[in-house]
Fold this sequence. Notes:
By secondary structure, this protein is mainly α. 79% of the residues lie in helices and 0% in strands.
Amino acid sequence: MLEFVVKRILNGLMVLWLIITLTFMLLRLMPGGPFTMDRKLPPAILKNLETKYKLNDPLIVQYCDYFKGLFRGDLGPSFKYEDRTVNSIIADGAPVSFQLGIKSVLLSLLLGIPAGVISALKHGKWQDRILSLVTVAGIAIPGFIVASLLMIVLALKLNLLPTAMWGGWKYQVMPILALSLGPMAVITRLTRTSMLDVLGQDYIKLAYAKGLSDYTVLWKHALPNSLIPVVTITGPLIAGIVTGSFVIESIFAIPGVGKAFVTSIYNRDYTLILGMTIFYSALLIFLNIVVDIIYPLLDPRITMLTKKEA
């Protein structure tokens, strides 16, 4: 198992290096630069700024300098946020984005998995039809539409919740609902499909033939195997929810990293774009490794398979 984890970590580091390298090169190959967007800057000041941030150095020198700082944990200064580093920008916004993302993921799992199980157990009945209709709507309707509808109904019409900003639980209800509806629908559909497949397997029929109770068959045999596809998408789902919160953060004026990431793109803030790319890529790679470690807890056969492959 340890060897398997080490291999996954090494592969993840290789992928992360490729992502950083490609992003670095593509940013430098794009026409223009972080300071050429402002046409009011005199040529002398523009030249001084490019010299200060070493943008006139050869590309290989810039690349090596960036990795030297990266090995020290320094993501560099922001080109657009005066007197601020990329580390400080991420440190200020990441806790808020993580809080929003994790709560949305938990809500999606806590409601999506039971809904999928109920839909599978009531296959073809009115409960299944209603849940299927809701999940199709949840997948089809974009999060920003849900956010706008929630804001109009709950905040403007009924005056139950504040319209924007971030604070206590009242400020968090609408963003979390808007962000979790789509993933919740995906988890419900995936759990339903997987549960229907598992319930038709021979070992489930054998368990019933042995006289085991419905509770034992469902919770000890069917559900753990049904959750394997859900666990598979959980890692990318968490990263997707955190990155997908950019629009939701903008709608509700939430002080997360979403605003900084969006503005960094049209400002061509090289270091901030790279820092955010590293941040989210490392998050996705880490979550995929965690998912690989969780697999054997649900299905011990996966452990045996990895040992044979190793």
